[in-house]
Amino acid sequence: MSSLSLESINDEEFERLRTNGIKINYWAVCKRKVWLYSKGLRMEPLSERVTLGRLLHEQAYPDLVRREVLLDDLIKIDVIEAESKILEVKYSRKFKEAALLQVSYYLYYLRRMGAGDLTGELRFPKERKKEQVSLSPEIESAIMEALRSIATIEAMDSPPEADFTTVCRVCAYCELCWG
């Protein structure tokens, strides 16, 4: 998460920029992936890693009944553990920063919608790890930067350039970028 700009987003700008959580997550990993996803290219159903993550998500924490809450047809919260706590279940901590930004965006979104100050928790059941998430001015600034950047990326005529990294090998979009 990069530079700080404590300038906030007003209601009108937030309404225009709000997006789904997966784009926030993808933005933290790869800007090219945001563009491809925003153009309707869905490679996730073909990805073994995504399938494993979905299975883990479905089987983890079976005692928690409030699962997959979809709000405004934009954000899908994995689990609501208590009135003031949301959980996001992830396959591994490999993309922890992206997951952290995604959960933070959910908290920010919910607060903008009048839910108050909630807390979040990233859970990595395979690794038996948890991480608490709460909003801070720095995280809110990163969310604002992401929202503005995503809007810019989506308006581009062609995808942004990307460098091949080790992350690319496990990406569902690898075939589209690198053949």
Automatic annotation (TrEMBL):
GO biological process: defense response to virus
Catalytic EC class: hydrolase
InterPro entries: CRISPR-assoc_prot_Cas4, Dna2/Cas4_DUF83, PDDEXK-like_dom_sf
EC number: 3.1.12.1
Keywords assigned by UniProt, alphabetized: Antiviral defense, Exonuclease, Hydrolase, Iron, Iron-sulfur, Manganese, Metal-binding, Nuclease
GO molecular function: exonuclease activity; iron-sulfur cluster binding; metal ion binding
Known cofactor(s): iron-sulfur cluster; Mg(2+); Mn(2+)
Pfam families noted in UniProt: Cas_Cas4
Chain ranges of the DUF83 domain: 20-178
Cofactor binding note of this UniProt entry: Mg(2+) or Mn(2+) required for ssDNA cleavage activity.
Superkingdom assignment: Bacteria
Reported function: CRISPR (clustered regularly interspaced short palindromic repeat) is an adaptive immune system that provides protection against mobile genetic elements (viruses, transposable elements and conjugative plasmids). CRISPR clusters contain sequences complementary to antecedent mobile elements and target invading nucleic acids. CRISPR clusters are transcribed and processed into CRISPR RNA (crRNA).
Family according to the record: Belongs to the CRISPR-associated exonuclease Cas4 family.
NCBIfam families recorded: cas4
Name by which UniProt lists this protein: CRISPR-associated exonuclease Cas4
Lineage: Bacteria, Bacillati, Bacillota, Clostridia, Eubacteriales
